[in-house]
Specification:
signal, Phosphate-selective porin, 4 helices, mainly beta
């Protein structure tokens, strides 16, 4: 059951205004708690405005979209062992996508989790207001183990762009504006056998067993390399995988792979492999470079657009619309307050290339400006007559 629309509308308006109150609260409560005490709740978050222009390679069909995004994170401490988290994000959309996409509010308001924590209190031809609680969990922690239940991020990935080990929370790299990444309604148990090793069990339930996920992982360390081994029921498939993270001298070296095979047709259908491997290096002059490759053996690999835009379209067993892909990126601080980067993705099987330049300016400690472009060359987008190039400007204030 969704919350009452009048209440959610008020809640959304309150969240859009809460940063102004939060700054005052921080000043008023400074010193309110003795050093030996922990406050019941701690608040932080941000407000940002994202403006986007999209256009074809011929500079036609120019469209404009704008999103005002406010986020409130709350960290709760109920005692020395019991903590919790409840995070709410509210986005106000307007522009071409809202005007030209029938049913857009219904798509945004559909929550994929067990708990229905997403709703649209305002859905008009010119503007759309979407609210979602994307973190809501309790965490009980002992010296050797912890148990967390609720909407959370179960992060099993090792590499930077493509994560075949990330069964619960796969995400799209181009969805850069969602820094927190999607959460999953899950129960997660972790046992720490040592500082660098332990076991983990996680269960994401669903009314339909064929859409649920349950898996176990072992983490360890061998000669400076962190490694992991996992086995899971992944919706309708068996998943077996592993990953590692370490260094070759001063060169960062990470990778992960997962083998999927149908449970119901185990002897009749062959399995397939998804694997990624990445290298990164920081030069003495602060230039930072990354390279990552993907092999995507999924039989669904040719689905148009999968893994390009929203994270809701993506799954751990189908991360990108190409059989093989390469990611390259270089970033450099021109000034302590200005950083630039240039990245690119090449899909080898498909006619797919993406160039991603960006500039980030730190205006003050909690205020930043980002200018980014995502320039796509993709046959599927041309055939569907969709815009291939995106220019973003974002200002973000954190509190």
């Amino acid at each position: 059951m969704k919350p009452d629309k009048r209440f959610t509308g008020f809640l959304c308006l309150l969240l859009l205004a809460v940063p102004c109150l939060a700054g005052a609260q921080e000043a008023d409560t400074l010193g309110a708690f003795p050093e030996e005490k922990t406050p019941l709740v701690r608040l932080d978050g941000y407000v940002k405005e994202l403006a986007m222009l999209s256009f074809t390679n011929q500079l036609t069909n120019v469209q404009y979209d704008n999103i005002i995004h406010s986020r409130l994170n709350s960290h709760w401490t109920f005692g020395p062992r019991l903590t919790g988290k409840a995070d709410l994000r509210v986005r106000l959309f307007n522009g071409s996508t809202v005007r030209n996409t029938p049913g857009y509010g219904g798509v945004l308001g559909e929550d994929q989790g067990v708990m229905d924590l997403s709703w649209v209190p305002l859905d008009q031809p010119q503007a759309l207001l979407h609210a979602q609680i994307d973190r809501l969990y309790l965490d009980w922690e002992e010296e050797k183990w912890s148990l967390r239940a609720g909407r959370q991020r179960v992060n099993w990935g090792k590499t930077y762009v493509w994560n075949p080990n990330d069964l619960f929370n796969a995400f799209a790299y181009l969805d850069f504006d969602y820094e927190e990444r999607p959460g999953a309604d899950a129960i997660r148990f972790q046992y720490y056998s040592s500082f660098a090793s332990g076991y983990e069990l996680a269960y994401q339930p669903h009314r339909d067993w064929s859409r649920s996920i349950v898996g176990g992982m072992y983490r360890g360390n061998y000669k400076g390399y962190d490694y992991q081994l996992l086995a899971a029921h992944y919706r309708q498939e068996l998943a077996l995988g592993g990953g590692w993270a370490g260094n070759i001298k001063t060169l960062g070296f990470k990778g992960e792979a997962t083998y999927f095979r149908s449970e119901g047709r185990f002897l009749k259908e062959p399995g397939y492999l998804l694997a990624s491997m990445g290298l990164d290096y920081a030069f003495s002059n602060s230039l930072y470079v990354q390279a990552e490759g993907l092999y995507n053996g999924s039989p669904l690999v040719r689905q148009p657009g999968v893994g390009l835009f929203g994270s809701s379209q993506i799954a751990a067993n189908n991360l990108f619309p190409s059989r093989a892909a390469l990611f390259l990126n270089a970033s450099y601080p021109l000034h302590p307050l200005v950083a630039v980067s240039l990245g690119g993705i090449q899909g080898f099987e498909q006619d797919l290339r993406i160039i991603i330049p960006s500039v980030t300016v730190s205006i003050r400690e909690n205020l930043a400006f980002l200018l980014m472009a995502q320039l796509l060359q993709a046959r599927e987008l041309r055939e569907l007559r969709l815009n291939q190039n995106f220019l973003f400007g974002r200002i973000k204030w954190s509190f």
